[in-house]
Structure formats: C-alpha cells, structure tokens
Automatic annotation (TrEMBL):
Protein name: PTS IIA-like nitrogen-regulatory protein PtsN
GO biological process: phosphoenolpyruvate-dependent sugar phosphotransferase system
Matching SUPFAM superfamilies: Phoshotransferase/anion transport protein
Domain PTS EIIA type-2 as annotated: residue spans: 5-148
Signal sequence bounds: none
PROSITE patterns found in the cross-reference section: PTS_EIIA_TYPE_2, PTS_EIIA_TYPE_2_HIS
Alphabetical list of Pfam families matching this protein: PTS_EIIA_2 (PF00359)
A GO term, aspect molecular function: protein kinase activator activity
Length: 148
C-alpha cells in the first residue's frame, strides 16, 4: 500500500519532545488540523483520545498507532513522530513508546481504515524499519524512510 497519499512531509516530525501521551496526541491534533479543512486540532485530539479510552493503541516494541474517525474529511490523513525520549503509552507490552503513527480517516470509510492500519502495523513490526526510523536525523529522512 502506498502511504505517501496519506502521509505528507509536513505531518512528519523527528525527535520531538513528548512528555506524555496527552501532549503527543495534542501535537498530532495540531499537525493534522493544518491538513484538514474544517477540522480543529481539538476535534482531532478528541477523536484520538476517545479511541485511546477504548484501549491503548500502543502495539508494542516502542510503537503506537493512535487512530480515529472524523466527520467532514474526505481522505485519510496521517502523522508520523519519533520522540526524543520514550513515553508511557500503556502499550500492550508495557514498554515505553518512541515511534507514533497517527491515522485519521473519514467517518464512513471503515474498510479503508482497517486496510491502512494493517499496512502501517506491518511496516512498523519490521525491526529493520523501526531501527532506521529511530536513527533518522531529520523530518525529511523520516518521511523518506517510511514511504520509501
């Protein structure tokens, strides 16, 4: 699956300071809102937070894939972050998280949501990929590694 249609370079940040899960979700909201006509960062944050309340999206091995649905958007939007220091994300393996890939999809696109999540999870379960992402030195390098 070509994720370059979902992830744009302006929604990628390398080695950001993330002091908590909430702060990281707020940053994702700010980055994603700049790409979404009509959606405020608070709406993005609330969508992600509501999903987290159902259970952590920390999939293990230092990776989290927060995701949510938004009314009024027409295509999926993604945000990719690496964190300068790992944070607690209530991951299934109880390990802190330092790679976060957030996905926001139109409210009605259930099947595409699942397919995109599966493609992202597969990519982030590759230890060679996660090692390279952690070693990235710039936003552009991080983007190129992920979509390449």
């Amino acid at each position: 699956m070509d994720l370059s249609n979902t992830l744009s370079p302006d929604c990628v940040r390398c080695a950001v300071e993330g002091t908590s899960k909430k702060k990281v979700l707020e940053l994702i909201g700010q980055l994603a809102a700049s790409r979404l006509a009509g959606a405020a960062s608070f709406e993005v944050f609330e969508s992600l937070l509501n999903r987290e309340r159902l259970g952590s999206t920390g999939i293990g091995l230092g990776v989290a894939i927060p995701h949510g649905r938004l009314a009024g958007i027409h295509k999926p939007i993604a945000v990719l972050l690496t964190l300068s220091s790992p944070i607690d994300f209530d991951a299934i393996d109880n390990q802190p998280v330092d790679i976060v890939f957030a996905l926001l999809v139109p409210e009605e696109q259930h099947e595409q949501h699942l397919q995109t999540l599966a493609a992202v999870a597969q990519r982030l379960n590759d230890k060679t990929m996660t090692r390279a992402l952690r070693d990235a030195q710039s936003d552009q390098e991080l983007y190129d590694l992920f979509v390449g």
